[in-house]
Amino acid sequence: MSYNYLFKLIIIGDSGVGKSCILLQFTDNRFRKDHDLTIGVEFGAKLIDIKEKKIHLQIWDTAGQENFRSITRAYYRSAAGALLMFDLTRRESFDKLSDWLQETLENGNPHMVIVLVGNKLDLEEERQVEYSEAEAFAKANGLVYLETSALTGHNVQEAFLAVGEQIIDKVESLRVDPKIENYGVKLGVKDPKTKKKKCCK
Ligand code: GTP
Ligand code: MG
């Protein structure tokens, strides 16, 4: 598979906020009704176009449950970006966001891009966290905020694009060096554009 860049991403946040569902919706356009608790980490991948570049996203869906924390922490260090998720119908998952940010500070690389995602927007009538409050939290921490529904697919693609766009900006402004493994960015083996132009007589 040819691509310009490979980005390693992680999805983090409390158990039950919809991390596995958002990944399934993003990679397979499907929704899973049951909570099939993630044990350790699960993996997904997708090739997408961002800013006219082919980006291979490698996505690690981590377990939200506390007892898997020692396994999941190991994945932070080599991640270029993260979706930090909470369930907007469950205030408790929003109140834990500071702890999650602390985890990324302690275990992630200093250039990690984080996008804050309030999920389950389809359950608007059960909302416990207002958009303005979540956005203010995001702003105070220098994050972009998006509300998604892994059920309807609303803003799912956009959330991954938002992470990818910011990583590209960092690479192009030389703040992240793809040659340094720990930053979670790799240069593609072949430039897809160059490959297309190749011809034979
Ligand atoms: P852990 O693996 O334990 O960390 O949980 P998780 O964050 O991966 O949660 P998961 O994706 O398994 O979803 C938990 C529950 O929420 C499931 O019953 C899903 O069907 C439900 N769910 C996830 N996203 C949405 C959504 O956008 N809307 C609605 N209505 N339900 C959702
Ligand atoms: Mg899960």
Could you walk me through the main structural features you see in this protein, from its secondary elements to its overall organization?
- Strands 1, 2, 3, 4, 5, 6 and 7 form a seven-stranded mixed β-sheet that branches.
- The protein contains seven helices and seven strands.
- It is α/β, with parallel strands linked by helices.
- It has helices spanning 19-28, 69-72, 91-95, 97-107, 131-140, 156-172, 192-197, and strands at residues 5-13, 41-50, 53-62, 81-87, 113-119, 144-148, 185-187.
- Residues 196-201 have low confidence and may be disordered.
- Magnesium ion binds at residues 19-20, 38, 61.
- Residues 19-20, 38, 61 line the site of magnesium ion.
Q: So what's the oligomer here?
A: single chain
Distinct helical segment count: 7
| Percentage of residues assigned to helices | 25-40%
The main β sheet shows up as: 7 strands, mixed
Strand proportion, as a percent range, falls in: 25-35%
The number of strands is 7
| Overall shape | globular
Structure at a glance:
The protein contains seven helices and seven strands. By secondary structure, it is of the alpha/beta class.
